[in-house]
Amino acid sequence: MSDINRETRAPEDRNAAAAVVLPNDPLDWTNDHIAAWLEWCSKNLELWPIPKSDDFPNTGHDLCSLDRAEFDRRSRNRRSGRLLLLHLSLLRQPVTGSPPSPSLTTPEDGQWL
Question: What predicted TM-score, i.e. pTM, was given to this entire model?
Answer without folding.
Answer: 0.77
